[in-house]
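Progress note, sequence design subtask.
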C-alpha cells in the first residue's frame, strides 16, 4: 500500500484502516469513515440512545445508523438495505459455514464446532488483522427462525463462552453480535436490517474499534447481498423449513 495513504494519520488509525481494506475505504465516497481520532471521538460523543443516521450508500442502498449503549464501549450499529433474493437463499447463505469466508470481511476461517439443532450452530471464526496486530477469533452461536404468518426471517449471532479454550496467539474478541431481520415485500424483494456490535478487544482503543466494526459490517453486508444471488443458493437443501 502506498505510504502516501497513511502519512500524517495516527498509527492506530492507519492500522485500523488496513484492517478494513484502506483502498476501499478511501475511495468509497458514499460511505466514508472518520479520518482522524478527533473526528471519530466527536462522532461517538454526539450519539445518544436513539438511532442517528450517519451515512447513506446510495449505490448499494445501504443506510448506516449509530447509537450509544452503556453496556458496550463501542457504538451500536444498524444497517438497513434491500436484498433481491428469495428468503431460502438468504437463510442458506448465512448458515453456510464452508463459504463464510466469501462474505464476512477479513475472515480467515470458519469451523463448525457443534450443530445443536438444524437451526442452531456453534462456529469458531478466525479473523485476519493487519501486520503488527494480533489476529482475532470468536466462538459464535447462530440461530435461525421464521414467523410462519408474516414470513419474517430472523438470524441472531452472538459470541459465547465455554465451547473452546483461548487459542494463543489469537486474541478472543470481546464482543461479536449481529441480529438480522429479513422482511418480505410485496414486490418480491426483502427489507433487511442488521443491528450489531463488534468489539475486537485487546489493546485497540474504542475509537479505533468503532471504525473497524463499521467497516467490517458494511463490507460484510455488501458481500452477503451479492453472494445470496449465487447459483449454489438458488435451490438450497435446508434442514429446516423456510417459506419464501
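Output:
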Amino acid at each position: 500500500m502506498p505510504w502516501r495513504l497513511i502519512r500524517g494519520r495516527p498509527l492506530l488509525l492507519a492500522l485500523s484502516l488496513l484492517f478494513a481494506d484502506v483502498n476501499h475505504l478511501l475511495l468509497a465516497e458514499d460511505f466514508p469513515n472518520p479520518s482522524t481520532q478527533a473526528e471519530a471521538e466527536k462522532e461517538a460523543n454526539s450519539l445518544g440512545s436513539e438511532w442517528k443516521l450517519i451515512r447513506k450508500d446510495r449505490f448499494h442502498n445501504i443506510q448506516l445508523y449509530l447509537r450509544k449503549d452503556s453496556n458496550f464501549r463501542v457504538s451500536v450499529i444498524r444497517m438497513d438495505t434491500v436484498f433481491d433474493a428469495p428468503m431460502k437463499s438468504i437463510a442458506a447463505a448465512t448458515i453456510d459455514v464452508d463459504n463464510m469466508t466469501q462474505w464476512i470481511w477479513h475472515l480467515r476461517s470458519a469451523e463448525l464446532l457443534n450443530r445443536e439443532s438444524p437451526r442452531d450452530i456453534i462456529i469458531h471464526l478466525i479473523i485476519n488483522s493487519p501486520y503488527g496486530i494480533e489476529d482475532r477469533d470468536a466462538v459464535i452461536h447462530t440461530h435461525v427462525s421464521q414467523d410462519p404468518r408474516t414470513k419474517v426471517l430472523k438470524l441472531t449471532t452472538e459470541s459465547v463462552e465455554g465451547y473452546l479454550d483461548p487459542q494463543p496467539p489469537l486474541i478472543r474478541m470481546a464482543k461479536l453480535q449481529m441480529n438480522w431481520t429479513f422482511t418480505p415485500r410485496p414486490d418480491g424483494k426483502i427489507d433487511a436490517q442488521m443491528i450489531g456490535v463488534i468489539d475486537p478487544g485487546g489493546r485497540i482503543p474504542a475509537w479505533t474499534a468503532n471504525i473497524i466494526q463499521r467497516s467490517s459490517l458494511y463490507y460484510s453486508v455488501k458481500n452477503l447481498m451479492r453472494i445470496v444471488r449465487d447459483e449454489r443458493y438458488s435451490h438450497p437443501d435446508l434442514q429446516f423449513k423456510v417459506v419464501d
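The domain at 3-233 is CATH 3.30.530.20 (Alpha-D-Glucose-1,6-Bisphosphate; Chain A, domain 4). Work on this subtask will continue into the next period as scheduled.
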